[in-house]
Amino acid sequence: MIGTVLQVAAGGAIGASGRYLTSVAATKMIGHGYPWGTMIVNVVGSFGMGMLVVYLMSKDGGTRYAPLLMTGVLGGFTTFSAFSLDALTIFERGEAMPALFYVLATVALSILAIFIGLSVARGIWA
């Protein structure tokens, strides 16, 4: 168990560093005013998750690298990739409505949660 946690932690450090560097590069190349860096990491992370799922499942013992690469690196790079995989998995099981609910509820509740968090924090520290 501790080995798996260390894999996730190491991968998370790599992924978070990649996210930061991607955001910095996007801002330097494209400029401020739109969250290009966030969009790029979400799209690239989702693409990477799709590639890794197929690749790791095709290799004998490949899933042993999932904690490092999927949860760690891609999780640190963007949790959107995990969200995308979850939504697609539900959809591919033939459950289109639950998949749609998952997507809409996750986005709506996340936006509501950040609004509430901002409001509470502003009430405390403003």
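Next protein, fold it too.
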Amino acid sequence: MTSPEVAPDAAGAPAVVLIGPMGAGKTSVGRRVARALGTPFTDTDKLVVRDHGPIPALFVAHGEPHFRALERDAVAEALARGGVIALGGGAVLDPVTRDRLTAHRVVLLTVAPHVVASRIHGDERPLLGGEDPVARWQRIYDERRPVYERTADITFDTSSGPLARVVDDIVAWARRVPAGETA
């Protein structure tokens, strides 16, 4: 019997979970990977917004710890659904979430700072406010990188080349690699 945190996708495999920094393309890539694999796609940030309202407003009204608790619940819900899941950039900071991810196939998407600048320009990302967004993004990424790398089974960079190539590479990897194994 499969536990609710290890819902298989249409092919009977654990979820493919995309992690990484803000602006790495987790949602864009995730939608395409899910379509190619014929499985559902879930963005955990969208689940939080659906149930609790806009993320910037949650940060202002309740603070980051409250948001992280809501995010942890959204990740659990998404993992129970299975398929392809895009996590918010800080979701893997939670040890409970990291533990839940061990039963799934985890893909780290990375992006170069010079590329992310155009991707985050004009966004209302609560953690990037108040200063040079790219410099703040770099500090956050540097802090989180060791956690991302320990959590991921494989890494793909989205900085250059067609996004379709990254999608194809993830799909090929997901079809051949069971959960918990590295490339």
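About the second fold: The CA atoms of residues 98 and 150 lie 10 Å apart.
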